[in-house]
Design a protein that fits this description.
The complex is a heterodimer of chains A (167) and B (465). Chain A is α+β, with helices and mostly antiparallel strands and 167 residues long. Chain A contains seven helices and three strands; from the N terminus they run αααβββαααα. Classes of the chains: A alpha+beta (167), B alpha/beta (465).
């Protein structure tokens, strides 16, 4: 099944009517990386948003009506130990947010801010029209970090920078 | 080495041979079908953009998004180019030849539009940047001057945001009451009886669309007008003709409405142009909207007087080239004949609706009688996101739209967050629809082969709509 996704039609360079018909028949479809995350999304679920160590990013794309919720659980060192997501959207949106939860784990809250949507997009081989889905995932990460930082500022003290200097 | 050379030469010869054969095949196929060539087959060659390919396809793009904007025939493109090359000048009051020619062409375009909608007079055509601006003009000029707190506006839940939001804002500003007509499950269109029930002497605006850009229903304008005149004598009727005027004969005298808004870019005209048709008497009673040059009569330090309609509502340098382009589009459409376009699109409408029913898992929106539909269809799949549908169609070189199509209240009413939509124009063919169906079926198969993680029920996770 997956082989259909990556097969390039040998007859693509032949401009005969038969060749054209064959070119139409072979599906390009979504790249297997997207399919993998669509069939087996990582870290679907929710964390307790009232927990002080949890940051919740809820972002939406009103144009397509999609919503992503991405949550991070951060330890006392500012490292993300757990991440969950729920996405209402197309296959590319689900895959983008699934990848995002994988990539944030084990990183510090400042490090994950440098995750770029273009990294997600190229990892998934997103079709050009779907780049905005990876942008939404990048926004979701930033929103989750921002939420956690605001909650931390209000109570729990974690100074990531000082930790690094000490080490 | 010689063998390799010969092989390469023979390969490229073979390639050239097959390319030539392919062109011959296409030409002969076209020649064979000329006798019974459809309107789509006969006209698509007029549209240069319909020859281009997308997403490394070998055949041209199949454009099924004319509801969003139409493509432009070479004739219109030539007129636009020619205007800038030979005529461009600011209009009205010019003292030189170029200005005179530009003015003449611009005002000729106004005449063409007036004739196209069978207006009573050319003074009833106000050029705007599109239908959205036209409706805003009515809301802000007519609306502000004539409505007071407690007055009522009747809209439908199916309206495009352009015929919804301006009235919402007016209602907020002036403390008005909005009433919404819902859908009639029997017809798939709006519930005309419910509309009648809302009408009274406090009704000042009744605004609705002629054809829905999502449902494809064709609303009974004359019947609605008659009800409004009987039960709401103080109401002005505003018709959104964006999805009707490009596709059928629309005669404002016959329909009996007070205002009509239309987009030039949806009827083979350039972007940035549309118009408001309004009864001359109403227009002349309306205060200016945008102000500045062109729309004035006399300006002193202390005072200003204004032109009569339509000049009163055309402040600043107009979209001259675009208006002339719209005139050329009207010429092009009238050469084909609006009746011919309408008849052909009835065929497409039926074919599109019937064929979409063969795709497993699809729900189609709007009237179930294909004879009562415009040539567009919005739909959704039981499990595949509309945006995935549109992406996969795009990968096959087919252009459709996914989202809420500027009709969020309608989607809320239907209980769905969004849909995909294929919309045809007279340059589409049944083969285009066949390609759409084949691609949809393949997409459905692709996703059917995947095991999607089941959605966990999560009460606090509400999608944006």
């Amino acid at each position: 099944m997956l082989s259909i996704l990556t097969t390039r039609v040998a007859s693509r360079n032949v401009a005969s009517p038969v060749g054209m018909a064959a070119a139409r028949l072979i599906r390009r479809g979504y790249h297997e990386n997207i399919v993998e995350h669509y069939e087996n999304p990582r870290n679907v679920g929710s964390l307790d948003k009232n927990d002080k160590s949890v940051g919740t990013g809820l972002v939406g794309a009103p144009a397509c009506g999609d919503v992503m919720k991405l949550q991070i659980k951060v330890d006392e060192n500012g490292i993300i130990t757990e991440s969950k997501f729920k996405t209402f959207g197309c296959g590319s949106a689900i895959a983008s947010s699934s990848v995002a939860t994988e990539w944030v784990k084990g990183k510090s809250v400042d490090e994950v801010l440098s995750i770029k949507n273009s990294d997600i997009a190229s990892h998934l081989k997103l079709p050009p029209v779907k780049l905005h889905c990876s942008m939404l995932a990048e926004d979701a990460i930033k929103a989750a970090v921002k939420d956690w930082k605001e909650k931390s500022a209000a109570g729990v003290k974690v100074d990531v920078k000082q930790e690094k200097v000490a080490a | 080495m010689q063998c390799l050379f010969i092989w390469i030469v023979s390969c490229s010869a073979a390639h050239a041979f097959t390319v030539r054969n392919e062109i011959r095949f296409r030409n002969s196929a076209r020649a064979a079908s000329t006798a019974t060539a459809s309107l789509g087959e006969r006209t698509r060659g007029d549209f240069p953009i319909l020859q281009r390919t997308v997403t490394d396809q070998e055949t041209p793009v199949i454009y099924l998004d004319s509801g969003a904007t139409s493509q432009k025939p070479q004739e219109v493109l030539d007129v636009l180019q020619s205007y800038y090359e030979r005529t461009n000048s600011n209009v009205h009051r010019g003292a030189h030849t170029l200005s005179r020619e530009a003015t003449s062409a611009y005002e000729a375009a106004r005449d063409k539009v007036a004739h196209f909608v069978h207006a009573f007079s050319r003074n009833e055509i106000v050029f705007t940047s599109g239908a959205t601006e036209a409706i805003n003009l009515v809301a802000q000029s007519y609306g502000r001057a004539n409505l007071v707190a407690g007055d009522e506006i009747v809209l439908t839940v199916a309206e495009h945001h352009a015929n919804f939001v301006p009235w919402q804002l007016l209602a907020q500003e002036k403390n008005l009451k909005l009433k919404f007509v819902h859908l009639d499950p029997a017809t798939g269109g709006i519930d005309v009886n419910e509309l009648e029930g809302y009408l009274n002497e406090k009704t000042k605006i009744v605004a609705f669309q002629h054809v829905s850009n999502v449902l494809a229903c064709i609303n009974p304008v004359k019947e609605i007008v008659q009800k409004v005149r009987s039960h709401a004598p103080n109401a002005a009727i505003v018709l959104d003709a964006c999805q009707s005027l490009p596709h059928m004969v629309v005669d404002v005298q016959d329909l009996g409405v007070d205002f009509l808004a239309a987009s030039g870019h949806k009827m083979c005209g350039p972007t940035g142009i549309g118009f408001l048709w309004g009864k001359e008497q109403l227009l002349n009673e309306m205060p200016p909207w945008k102000s500045g040059g062109e729309m004035i009569d006399q300006v002193t330090l202390e005072s200003v007087t204004f032109q009569a309609a339509p000049g009163r509502f055309e402040a600043g340098t107009p979209a001259i080239a675009q208006a002339i382009g719209l005139g050329a589009a009207i010429d092009y459409l009238q050469k084909i004949g609006m009746k011919n376009i309408e008849l052909y699109e009835h065929e497409l409408a039926e074919y599109l609706y019937e064929q979409l029913q063969t795709v497993p898992g699809l729900t189609l929106l709007g009237p179930t009688d294909p004879k009562k539909r415009a040539a567009l269809c919005a739909f959704y799949h039981e499990s595949i996101h509309p945006s995935d549908l549109s992406t996969f169609l795009d990968m096959d070189g087919i252009a459709v739209r996914a989202g809420h199509h500027c009709c969020q209240p309608l989607h809320a009413e239907l209980g769905i967050p969004h849909s995909a939509r294929a919309s045809c124009y007279f340059y589409n063919t049944k083969e285009d629809i066949d390609a759409l169906i084949a691609s949809l079926k393949r997409t459905v198969d692709f996703f059917a082969g995947l095991n999607n993680a089941a959605d966990e029920a999560d009460d606090d996770f509400v999608p944006f709509i």
